[in-house]
């Protein structure tokens, strides 16, 4: 490679696949546990770090959800989001669309209002850091449809505080069809829609096809199994569907980063992007993901520039704003 990690860090970029709950670093988790008198079973940062151990999606989620018990007050959600945004600034993230999972909190007695107001306060202040940030509300697909419907109703008074609706968590026995009605309603209500199609799941390609053809998503989160069906790849390219890939987290929950698939989609002209997913758990923020992928799969400087351009083009911002950010990328590339 003829470029350094410093070059990658400096690239202006957008992050489109980032779970705010997945940015809970061990030090903040311990701090909030002490503040809110929550017994997490660990007393030191070292012990918290040792608890972040998993080998697949299911074991990851068993660690991920209990950790959220330390998030109790509006200020906790603000602190979590702000801590991520400070790291985003260090990675020269200029724009981000951030997932959050209200059901993971309302199901344990924290109000929807507490969650969204805490997060929204942080994203509203992101401009101070030179970042434009937005929220994407996700449904937990392993919870009942009625829970998602109730959550959607809770969201409506705060609709101006989110940009899109997403779908995440355990995909097993929870196909996208389960939520088709509520996503169609979200489209009618003027919200953007995106859905997780995690890597190497049972019926992965079937789920991707449903998302694209039956539901009409604008983005697929992960989604690299689409390479199994060339006609779907062509469809995604034609309709400018974004793919928010997360190579480092892929390597934790499977044995593969899916780098070959990312390179293939990039070469074909698909709007494939690189993101950090749950960086506190995988200890890899967006520049780390990009550089790790570039190193292992020998991505050229032109391919790296294409990835960051894709991140802006796959976003939910206006075409006018996209052009402004793309000029920023070109300026940086020319200077380096």
Give a structural overview.
With 336 residues, the protein is α/β, with parallel strands linked by helices. The protein is 51% helix and 13% strand. It has 17 helices and 8 strands. It has helices at residues 5-10, 26-35, 45-51, 57-67, 74-90, 103-106, 112-125, 145-155, 180-188, 204-215, 230-238, 247-253, 259-268, 279-282, 286-297, 301-313, 319-335; strands at 13-15, 93-100, 132-140, 164-168, 192-197, 219-222, 242-245, 271-274. Helix 16 (301-313) runs antiparallel to helix 17 (319-335). The protein is globular.
How would you summarize the topology of this molecule?
Layout: H1 5-10, E1 13-15, H2 26-35, H3 45-51, H4 57-67, H5 74-90, E2 93-100, H6 103-106, H7 112-125, E3 132-140, H8 145-155, E4 164-168, H9 180-188, E5 192-197, H10 204-215, E6 219-222, H11 230-238, E7 242-245, H12 247-253, H13 259-268, E8 271-274, H14 279-282, H15 286-297, H16 301-313, H17 319-335
Parallel strand pairs: 1-2, 2-3, 3-4, 4-5, 5-6, 6-7, 7-8
Descriptive keywords:
8 strands; 8-stranded parallel sheet; 336 residues; single chain; 17 helices; alpha/beta
Quick summary:
By secondary structure, this protein is α/β, with parallel strands linked by helices. It has helices at 5-10, 26-35, 45-51, 57-67, 74-90, 103-106, 112-125, 145-155, 180-188, 204-215, 230-238, 247-253, 259-268, 279-282, 286-297, 301-313, 319-335, and strands spanning 13-15, 93-100, 132-140, 164-168, 192-197, 219-222, 242-245, 271-274. The longest helix has 17 residues, at 74-90.
């Amino acid at each position: 490679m003829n470029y350094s990690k410093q070059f990658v860090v400096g690239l202006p970029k957008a992050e489109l696949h980032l779970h705010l709950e997945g940015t809970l670093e061990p030090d903040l988790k311990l701090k909030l546990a002490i503040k809110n008198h929550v017994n997490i079973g660990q007393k030191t940062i070292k012990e918290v770090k040792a608890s972040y151990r998993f080998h697949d999606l299911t074991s990851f989620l068993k660690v991920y959800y209990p950790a959220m018990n330390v998030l109790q007050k509006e200020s906790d959600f603000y602190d979590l989001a702000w801590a991520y945004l400070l790291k985003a600034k260090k990675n020269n993230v200029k724009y981000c669309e951030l997932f959050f999972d209200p059901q993971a909190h309302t199901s344990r007695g924290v109000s929807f209002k507490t969650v969204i107001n805490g997060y929204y306060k942080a994203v509203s202040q992101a401009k101070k850091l030179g970042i434009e940030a937005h929220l994407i509300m996700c449904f937990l697909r392993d919870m009942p449809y009625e829970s998602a419907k109730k959550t959607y109703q809770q969201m409506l008074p705060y609709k101006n505080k989110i940009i899109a609706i997403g779908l995440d968590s355990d995909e097993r026995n929870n196909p996208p069809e389960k939520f088709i009605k509520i996503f169609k309603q979200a489209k009618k209500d003027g919200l953007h829609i995106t859905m997780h199609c995690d890597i190497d799941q049972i019926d992965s390609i079937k789920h991707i096809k449903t998302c694209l053809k039956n539901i009409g998503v604008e983005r697929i989160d992960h989604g690299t199994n689409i390479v199994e069906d060339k006609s779907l790849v062509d469809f995604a390219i034609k309709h400018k569907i974004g793919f928010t890939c997360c190579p480092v987290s892929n390597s934790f929950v499977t044995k593969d980063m899916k780098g070959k698939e990312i390179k293939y989609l990039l070469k074909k002209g698909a709007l494939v992007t690189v993101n950090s997913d749950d960086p506190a758990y995988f200890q890899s923020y967006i520049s780390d993901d990009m550089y790790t992928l570039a190193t292992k799969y020998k991505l050229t400087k032109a391919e790296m520039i294409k990835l960051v351009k894709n991140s802006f083009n796959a976003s939910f911002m206006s075409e006018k704003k996209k052009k402004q950010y793309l000029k920023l990328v070109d300026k940086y590339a020319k200077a380096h």
